[in-house]
Specification:
Elements lengths: L1 E8 L2 H9 L4 E5 L13 H12 L4 E6 L8 H13 L5 E3 L14 E3 L8 H9 L4 E3 L6 H9 L4 E8 L11 H6 L16 E4 L5 E6 L6 E3 L4 H7 L3 E4 L6 H20 L5 E2 L21 E2 L21 E9 L4 E4 L9 E6 L2 E11 L2 E4 L10 E6 L1 H9 L6 E10 L2 E8 L4 E6 L11 H8 L7 E8 L9 H21 L19 E2 L8 H9 L4 E2 L13 E5 L3 H4 L15 E5 L2 E8 L4 E6 L1
Parallel strand pairs: 1-2, 1-11, 1-12, 2-3, 3-4, 4-5, 5-6, 6-7, 7-11, 10-13, 20-23, 24-25
Antiparallel strand pairs: 7-10, 8-9, 8-27, 14-15, 14-19, 15-18, 16-17, 16-19, 17-18, 20-21, 21-22, 26-29, 27-28, 28-29
Helix pairs in contact: 1-2, 1-8, 5-7
Length: about 600
């Protein structure tokens, strides 16, 4: 079984960095119709990324995972054709109308936006031809195992990054409030805003809090378990994150996954080549709202970043004392001039910069609101970020050389780690004399320069007794490495999977707006699979009153210590969120351990 580390790419530069820092695959927004409207890329830029990726057997998955309107269907079909032509490895989609189109035989992945939480629906998606199913983040380890036992498709799972509080594909909050649909890639992130929490009588339970803003996901402690559970693709969230984030987090999980693979001989990395890291990756030094493992072990935890939606970073230590123009911090961390720090005062997050760091004696740009005993976080490590932004590691493939004489010519054969081989030869009579020692010949052949290869072994046949000119060695080396690199690109094999329509029954006879049907082809898809009643998607609804605009595994009552299941003195009556003079009803389904937000 091949195991894949899947990294995000905001653009081509970020995608190449992800590959160089250890990704086995990269996902990137296509020109349009991706769930991050500000992360689109041209066909030419995606093609550049694909050409670089395929040298290392790294895969590239363009994202077309928005819902689609009827007038957009021809453009989507044309995009899929173009992506197939430039050798994209698969396409991540949400809209079932795509399965009704005449498209080339490119693998389709069911985006997490298709709400891949219910086993029956996952089995259905598996049966209609999806090559991979990207699972909901809310699933437990036990549920993942059960899905693996009942599903043939590859399984992908998020292991790191920002968490949507809602089940993916089931959030209509942004569309309801400002007519910007998350299912159209235009989410305004109302979940990161501040709200008052009220009871049915209007009493304020919480005031001005980020009640719906979750901590970031970090499943770094579960890699081996997830492999054993059946996950083959480990996904890092972050198509809008900067390149330093991509480098740091990709390298961090590359090291962890490689360690896990060493313990299991039946699993292997899905790509070729490797990178020698010259730094210690640390997720605390990249954007994070502190971390949670969410519901991977079925446990209810405090998962909200309730006092701030901003990055906290890493804990540095506590303030020991405050003087006129400096503070003393009790910390074993090395602080730098220009570092960004933050702290809470009365549950409000404040931030400032370090002007001068002299050991634990810190001169701040703005010490206002800071008090002795305050816990200090560093949310910007200037030295670490500067290092990563300038760091230019290159992924390399192992290459072995054999140098020998045959038919009065000097031959050089190069064989890479995937056993691709190429031979080049020259007539030494055409060159002036040069190197004679084996050591000097090896030194010259090891100069792989800007190529994608790292020469790890050289076999010089004993019959070589000629003087070997440096020019001849350079020409042989360049000839072999260029030919091998081109050969790898030309011989890369994309999977060809044609989806053959079938009539396997959908698990339900009727579907509502939460199935996100917004075009005639999607409607035809569900009808062909036996669905009798089909409600149009939320974006097409004219009357939205009393509609559910969010469903989540996260529970506000549990978060504030008022869970009626744990403590019978509390009830499950609705609460209300209030923001900008608008109120939203919060209902609790304790039987299913879920929460809903209703538009009033």
């Amino acid at each position: 079984m091949k195991i894949e580390l899947l990294s995000p790419a905001k653009n081509t530069e970020s995608g190449i960095a992800a590959i160089d820092y250890g990704a086995d695959a990269v996902y990137i927004g296509a020109l349009k119709f991706g769930a991050r409207v500000n992360a689109g890329n041209s066909f030419e830029d995606i093609q550049k990324l694909i050409e670089y990726a395929h040298k290392f057997n790294v895969k590239v998955y363009p994202v077309l995972n928005t819902i689609i309107y009827d007038h957009e269907l021809p453009a989507v079909r044309e995009m899929i054709n173009r992506l197939y032509q430039i050798k994209a490895d698969a396409i991540i989609v949400q809209d079932m109308g795509i399965l009704e189109m005449e498209i080339p035989p490119i693998p389709l992945f069911a985006s997490t936006q298709t709400h891949n939480y219910d086993l029956d629906r996952i089995k259905f998606l598996d049966s209609v031809g999806f090559s991979r199913i990207i699972l909901a983040r809310e699933l437990s380890m036990d549920m993942i195992k059960k899905i693996r036992q009942n599903c043939q498709a590859e399984l992908e799972f998020f292991i790191h990054g920002a968490l949507c509080v809602s089940f993916s594909g089931q959030c209509y909050f942004s569309e309801a409030v400002v007519n910007r649909s998350g299912n159209r890639g235009e989410c305004s992130q109302p979940c990161r805003m501040k709200y008052n929490l009220l009871d049915a009588n209007g009493n304020v339970l919480l005031k001005n809090k980020n009640i719906l803003s979750l901590k970031d996901l970090n499943l770094s402690g579960y890699i081996s378990e997830l492999i054993d559970a059946g996950i083959s693709s480990f996904k890092i969230e972050g198509r809008l994150k900067d390149i330093s984030y991509v480098k740091n987090i990709t390298a961090y999980y590359r090291i962890l996954i490689d360690e896990a693979l060493k313990q299991n001989s039946s699993r292997e990395k899905s790509s070729s080549g490797s990178t020698n890291f010259n730094f210690i990756p640390d997720p605390l030094k990249s954007f994070n709202r502190s971390f949670t493992d969410y519901y991977i072990n079925k446990k209810r935890n405090r998962v909200a970043s309730i006092n701030s939606e901003k990055s906290l970073g890493e804990i540095i230590g506590k303030v020991k004392s405050i003087n006129n123009n400096f503070i003393i911090i009790d910390s074993d961390k090395k602080l730098n001039n220009g570092d960004g720090i933050c702290f809470f005062d009365n549950d409000i997050l404040y931030g400032t910069n370090i002007n001068i760091a002299n050991g634990n004696k810190i001169y701040l740009n703005n010490p206002e609101h800071l008090k002795p005993g305050a816990l200090i976080y560093r949310n910007y490590d200037t030295q670490f970020d500067k290092f990563l932004s300038k760091n230019r590691l290159k992924r390399k493939l192992k290459l072995s050389f054999r140098l020998y004489i045959q038919s009065d010519k000097l031959h050089l054969t190069g064989t890479d780690e995937d056993n691709y081989s190429f031979n080049s030869s020259i007539d030494l009579n055409n060159y002036k004399s040069g190197y004679t020692s084996t050591e000097k010949i090896e030194t010259q052949l090891k100069k792989s320069g800007e190529s994608i290869f790292e020469v790890t072994s050289i076999n010089i046949e004993s019959e070589i007794h000629h003087e070997i000119p440096v020019k001849a060695l350079n020409e042989l080396r360049r000839s072999v490495t260029i030919a091998l690199e081109n050969f790898r690109i030309e011989n890369y094999k994309n999977k060809s999977i044609e989806i053959i329509p079938n009539s396997i029954p959908y698990p339900e006879a009727g579907i509502d707006y939460k199935t996100n049907v917004t075009n005639s082809k999607a409607e035809g898809f569900y009808k062909r699979h036996g669905v009798k009643t089909i409600e149009s998607g939320f974006e097409l609804q004219k009357n939205r009153k009393n509609k559910e605009i969010m469903r989540t595994k996260y529970c506000i009552r549990y978060e504030i210590g008022k869970c009626p299941v744990i403590d019978k003195t509390h009830d499950a009556s609705p609460l209300y969120l209030e923001n900008n003079n608008k109120k939203y009803r919060v209902e609790f389904d304790c039987k299913e351990c879920m929460m809903k937000i209703i538009l009033e």
